[in-house]
Specification:
single chain, alpha/beta, 6-stranded parallel sheet, 14 strands
């Protein structure tokens, strides 16, 4: 079997940073970890050609060569995802699709003409797909309610990547999150019981990257690295000596919930292991809005004090903020801006709320008759895809005003300086570099 593995074009979105990439001479922020993990699950006698279309597009010769196209995508890639499916079908190729977008909205891929839908988590559904191919079946939908044991997940095919094209290489330690934020689809995709790899398994992946000569940013893409605190600490205790022996070759980034501030030992271990940046979904400083979306973990302690503590102990916070929650009070944009300034957060990603399918928010809004036509579009210029509880014009104007004030050069530089000065205290004491 000759398989063409494709990752669609990523338009400017929440994580793309395209202008920064252009300045740095890079092509993309991160490679498609899911697709190169699927590549490691394919039979060893298959021939594989992999293309991240954000780095290098495939050619007509590649389409002529293949028997099967395997395409994965996130919702923000839906336009190119659809065009690739249709191209493969028109060329008479078998087309198989998977990933979070197809899993959440399988009807989209079916309407585009995909023959095989490999949904949910690949460790469970790839074997079903491969068995179907072996039986000569030309169509199928492969699903599993079972959550796989990720200790059996193979090492991703990092060798397929052009390492020079990326800002950060991605790895994964855990899947799932224990919280139940209404607007988030993670718990529906991966469950509320975080499953983790073993420390030895994770270090083996890092060793592959190290031996390949990658000595820069490594993004641990867990949706909540501290979802299983016990296992996170086990990993960090193994990771610290591994990093020390190799003179700290990586700069780690990850994602964690704000309750990280409640565990001093965990923060100390993260910093000692070489973690520098942690993304936190703070969303809004308004308690009523946080309670309305069931993000109660953000209401237990002062958000400003929690952020300052994490920063002073040596981690830089990158945070996401959202406007448009139900019952949001006027002035939300200004309050978000003031919070970012007070908490000394150098990078705040700011967007309007989108209702994603496969979330509790979508289900509630659908029941209330408040959804508008069209799927969610996750980028900074998108207007909400539902009817909010206050005027859209008012929300949008506040968003625009706060966005431009927040990113004025001088306030940004002041926040960054204060953040690094706070981080430097702990890191200097413990002889850990900031970058």
């Amino acid at each position: 079997m000759k398989a063409l593995l494709l990752w669609p074009i990523m338009p400017n979105s929440f994580w793309s940073y395209q202008e920064t990439l252009d300045l740095a001479g890079l092509k993309s922020t991160n490679p498609p970890l899911g697709l190169i993990t699927i590549a490691a699950m394919l039979p060893t006698d298959w021939e594989i050609r992999f293309f991240d279309r954000n780095v290098t597009p495939e050619t007509d010769a590649d389409w002529d060569w293949c028997d099967l196209a395997i395409i994965s995508a996130m919702i923000v890639q839906k336009a190119d995802f659809q065009s690739l499916i249709k191209k493969g079908v028109n060329l008479g190729k078998q087309v198989a699709v998977g990933g979070p977008f197809a899993t959440s909205i399988p009807t989209f891929a079916l309407a585009a003409g995909a023959h095989h839908l490999i949904l949910d988590e690949g460790e469970c559904t790839m074997p079903l797909f491969l068995d179907a191919l072996a039986r000569g079946e030309t169509t199928g939908i492969y699903r599993s309610t079972e959550k796989p044991d990720v200790t059996n997940t193979p090492i991703p095919r990092f060798d397929l990547l052009d390492l020079d094209a990326y800002l950060a290489i991605t790895v994964q330690f855990s899947r799932g999150c224990p919280f139940q934020c209404e607007f988030c689809d993670i718990i529906n995709l991966y469950g509320r019981k975080p499953r983790t790899k073993t420390p030895a398994q994770f270090l083996a992946e890092l060793e592959v990257l190290y031996q390949m000569g990658w000595h820069r940013y490594v993004f641990i893409v867990d949706d909540n690295f501290i979802g299983n605190t016990h296992n996170a600490k086990l990993l960090l205790r193994a990771l610290i000596p591994w990093m020390e022996e190799r003179n700290y070759p990586f700069i780690f980034l990850t994602e964690a919930s704000i309750n990280l501030a409640e565990d001093d030992e965990l923060i100390e271990l993260m910093v000692k292991a070489g973690m520098t940046i942690v993304f936190m979904g703070i969303e809004t400083p308004d308690t009523d809005s946080l309670l309305g979306i069931h993000k109660v973990q953000n209401t237990r302690k002062s958000l400003v004090e929690s952020c300052e503590k994490v920063t002073r102990m040596g981690l830089q916070i990158m945070s996401g903020f959202i406007m448009g929650f139900d019952n949001e009070r006027a002035g939300a944009g200004q309050r978000i801006q003031e919070f970012i300034e007070t908490a000394n957060i150098p990078i705040g990603q700011f967007s309007l709320l989108q209702a994603l399918q496969n979330t509790a928010l979508w289900t509630r809004l659908e029941r209330e008759g408040r959804l508008t036509e069209g799927l969610a579009t996750i980028h900074q210029g998108a207007i909400m895809n539902f009817i909010p509880t206050r005027p859209v014009v008012e929300i949008t104007q506040e968003y625009i005003d706060a966005f431009w004030q927040m990113y004025e050069p001088m306030p940004y530089l002041k926040r960054t300086f204060r953040c690094f000065r706070m981080m430097n205290g702990w890191r200097s004491k413990h002889n850990r570099p900031i970058t």
